[in-house]
Write a structure and sequence with these properties.
Blueprint lengths: L19 H15 L11 H8 L3 H13 L3 E3 L5 E3 L10 E2 L13 H15 L2 H4 L9 H10 L1 H4 L7 E4 L2 H12 L5 E5 L4 H9 L3 E5 L1 E2 L2 E2 L1 H11 L3 E4 L13 H13 L3 E5 L13 H4 L4 E6 L11 E4 L3 H12 L7 H13 L1 H23 L12 E5 L6 H10 L2 E2 L1 E2 L7 E2 L18 E5 L6 H16 L11
Parallel strand pairs: 3-14, 5-6, 5-9, 6-16, 9-10, 10-11
Antiparallel strand pairs: 1-2, 4-12, 7-8, 11-12, 13-17, 15-17
Length: 475
């Protein structure tokens, strides 16, 4: 390619098309995919391309760096920059098993992270970011938490908040402070595996309460309360993990009423509320003194922050919660908390969350189209609960998918514990014994949308055929 040639792939930069360096990198990727650029083709020098596109040199440098990150380019020293040969990925598993937020289109997360950390370091004493913070977050961290919870509750007293190193730590601390060894914890028959892990390690008994299409059944909860005198009720009422069910308001009110009659505290784990389309108010707004409310940033922003806000309105209980938390997780990392606070207060968190929400909904539409007839998602959130045809079991399907290079999570991973008598009546929720013929598909962990599409297409094809008979390989 001659330096004075106009490249046929040259993009027309759009004012509202996102960062210009990403537009250029996307154009390079599209040109490789379309065959306009082939392995070994030499790209224009960066200054020449900057002049052609009327952008500064830094923009081109960032575009080339991004293209290298995507394995599109390779540098050959003084000879210049060339289109790279495709790299063979020997372990390219398409991960539909990990529930993480999808990367928002057009948002440069690396730049967001660098800017956020730079602002933190400019405005804070570095020594304070590297020492102990034992009060459940600084005053400004709790104020940021109160702002984060405003869509759920309106005005929140920042003094009622505890900043925790993630929701899992908050769940474990809640169990320690609200129960004793051997006590019963009630939960839905299919639910978050982290609850089971914490209850088992802490020596608590987890009892599964049957559900219907709207979540836990109030009559079954009442029966379980009479029979077991539980110390705690755990609920994940909005876009529940894994079934993606959102409890309607009347169901929330009925469950709270039962818990109040039997004086059972509720832990409300609510990581997806801000991603849902017009969700009902949290349980904690219906019974403020009855409910300990957990809101993590891991599902709306990024898991790497390890920051969750816990609303505990009772001051005595709040101090006991802090003491329990310190027994195993002394504090949230001050640097992580400061970054989360910076993003919330300067508005970056809301831009990132809106990008996650839009990308998640786009991916849900993709899943609905590719899994036609089987998709039963809510259209938002991070995951789909997929009922299987009768000829597949969840474990069989997960194993077969793995052999095709796809990771999914079978229903068995979400079985809560000892089952209550009674039958679940909701589609996809199985019975009180936890026998459920479904898998969870997570839509966010595959960064590239094209690879996600390929994974969903492959999964759809797998679902359409019957399992292969078992054979043993002889070598």
């Amino acid at each position: 390619m001659q330096e004075d040639d106009t490249p046929p792939w040259l993009p027309r930069l759009a004012a509202r098309g996102g960062p210009r360096f990403l537009q250029i990198a996307d154009a390079l990727q599209a040109a490789v995919a379309d065959g306009l650029l082939k392995p070994g083709d030499r790209l224009p020098p960066q200054r020449h391309l900057a002049a052609l596109l009327d952008v500064d040199l830094t923009t081109i440098t960032r575009a080339y760096d991004e293209a290298r990150r995507r394995n599109l380019l390779e540098g050959r020293g003084a000879r210049g920059t060339y289109i790279a040969a495709p790299k063979v990925e020997l372990t390219a598993v398409l991960d539909l098993g990990m529930n993480t937020p999808p990367p928002p289109a057009g948002l440069d997360f690396d730049d967001l992270l660098k800017q956020g950390l730079a602002q933190v370091l400019m405005g804070a004493d570095a020594a304070l970011l590297m020492t102990y913070h034992l009060g459940g977050g600084s005053d400004v961290d709790r104020q940021a938490g109160a702002q984060w919870l405003q869509p759920m509750f309106g005005a929140v007293d920042a003094e009622q908040l505890v900043v925790c190193p993630g929701a899992q730590a908050a769940i474990a601390a809640s169990i320690l402070v609200l129960t004793e060894p051997g006590d019963v914890i009630l939960a839905e028959s299919i639910g978050y595996p982290g609850l089971r892990a914490a209850a088992t390690q802490l020596g608590r008994q987890l009892i599964a309460v049957p559900t219907d299409p709207h979540g836990m059944r109030p009559d079954s909860l009442e029966q379980a309360c009479r029979q077991h005198q539980p110390a705690l009720l755990y609920l994940n009422p909005t876009l529940q993990n894994p079934t993606a069910t959102t409890m309607p308001l009347d169901r929330r009110q009925a469950l709270v009423a039962v818990a109040q009659r039997y004086n059972v505290r509720i832990v409300e784990d609510d990581p997806y509320w801000l991603l849902a389309e017009a969700p009902p108010p949290p349980l904690a707004s219906l019974a403020p003194e009855q409910v300990l409310y957990i809101s993590t940033l891991s599902k709306c922003l990024t898991p790497g922050l390890r920051v969750a806000f816990v609303l505990v309105r009772d001051p005595v209980l709040r101090e006991r919660f802090l003491a329990a938390l310190r027994a195993f997780a002394l504090m949230v990392s001050p640097l992580s908390a400061a970054l989360a606070t910076q993003w919330i207060l300067d508005g970056s968190a809301y831009g990132l969350m809106e990008g996650v929400r839009k990308e998640a909904r786009l991916r849900h539409r993709m899943a609905r189209d590719l899994l036609a007839g089987r998709y039963s998602g809510a259209g938002d959130g991070l995951h789909v609960w997929l009922e299987l045809p009768g000829y597949w079991s969840p474990t069989q399907l997960a194993q077969a998918a793995h052999s095709e290079g796809i990771a999914v999570t079978p229903a068995e991973a979400f079985t809560t514990g000892t089952a209550e008598t009674g039958r679940d009546t909701g589609a996809g929720t199985g019975t009180g014994t936890g026998t459920v013929n479904a898998i969870r598909i997570s839509l966010g962990s595959i960064k590239d949308r094209g690879r996600l599409q390929a994974g969903l297409q492959r999964l759809s094809q797998l679902l359409a055929r019957r399992p292969d008979p078992f054979t043993t390989a002889v070598v």
